[in-house]
Each structure stands twice: as structure tokens, then as C-alpha cells.
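Write out the 3D structure for:
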Amino acid sequence: YAVAVPVTVPVPASPVQRLLAGGIDVLLVTGVSCFLPVSAAGRVLCAGLVLVVLVAAQAVTGAGPGGAVVGMRLHRVSHDSGPPGAAAVGRAGLMAMAGAATLGIAPLIMVMRADATGMRRTWFDRISGTVLVSRRSQTVYTLVIGGRSVLVDAAVLLGRAPERGPGREGVRLVSVPSDDATVSKTHALLEPTPEGLAVTDLGSTNGTYLVDFRGSHELAPGLAETVPRGGAIYFGEAECRVR
């Protein structure tokens, strides 16, 4: 069972934005601590104080200096319009512990693999209940498939075990529950538009059906049709409602 809900939300921050923001913050911390005419212990203390200030700024405003420069903010998932507050402190603590234990490697890997998760969130974000977003916004959809939420802000391939074909190397893959045999391995292409979800059947075995105010009809393979709000899609027997 799947539900697609169109809403206008900030776009999840890209790995490039995350890396640039982190690099700016690191340069700020090291710059302040390295050029002060104090002892080594004093420089370490200054670096720690700057880190505290950066985390506090992110907790109160959602963005530290790096995030402000690249146009990125930290939100709480449950309160995406307000500052992250204590969630930002918890997230920073998790990143600090993982960074200290792996010499900074774990946070970098998490950032680079953020796009591989359906929600575009790192392990630190999922634990602390936060999400990093860009300041630009667009119309996106949220697919709820088998109890799992997947953000759709670009084209996705849906199926039991979808694979990218020629010309679709950058398309994200979304898997439905493997026990639903009526869904083909690579069943359909979904593309968000302001009018709704553009759905293209990719020659599936059991077909893709659109249900709207006119009734039900099967989509012709290879031809995209837009599913408006209030309609429903069937991928084989797997239902996807659009609200």
C-alpha cells in the first residue's frame, strides 16, 4: 500500500552543500585557534569554545556560518518550520563521537551516502530527528510504501528490484515489498510535476492502472500520464493513492 502526498517543502541539502558547509566551519575553527597568540592548551580551549558557539547558532537559527554561506539549514522532522534546538546539540554530539572514533572518516561517508537513503538523511539525522535542507523549495511527493516513507523530488524507478537502464543512470531506485509478486522487477518511472505524478509503465507484466474521476484504465507502456491529487495508481495489485 502506498500513499503519495504532494507538498511544497525545502529540497534536501546535497552532499556538496554539506561538505562545503562543514569545510567552512572547520576552517573557521582552525583559523581562530591557530592564529591566536596563546599557548597550545589555549588554542585547544579556543577551538572548543568556537565549536560550542557554532552548535549553539545552529540550534537557535538552524544554520552555522557554513550553512548560512551555502544556503543550508537544519530542521527538526517533526517541526520543520522551527529551529532544531536540542536536536542540533544531540546531532553534533553524535557526529563528534563518530568523528573522533574514526578520525573523521565516518561523518564523511555518511554525508556522501545521504542521497542513497530515501529520505536523504544521514544516520546522525535519523537518530536525532533532523534533516538538512536547502533554502530553495519545490513541489515534491512522499511515497509511503510498506510503512517506509520515500521522498520523491526527482524521477524514480519503482519495482521489486528496479535497475537503471541506458539514459537513466542518475534516476533513484525505489523498491516495493518483495513479497508482492504482481509488481515487476522494474515496473514504472515516476516523475513529480506541479500537476501531479507523471507515471510511465515500463512494460510491466501485470500492468499499471490509473483510477480517477473518469474511472479506471491501463496505462500504455512507454507513455507517461499524470496522476492528479485524488487519483489512485495500481502497480499490478499494489495500490498507490495520490492525495
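The CA atoms of residues 4 and 242 lie 5 Å apart.
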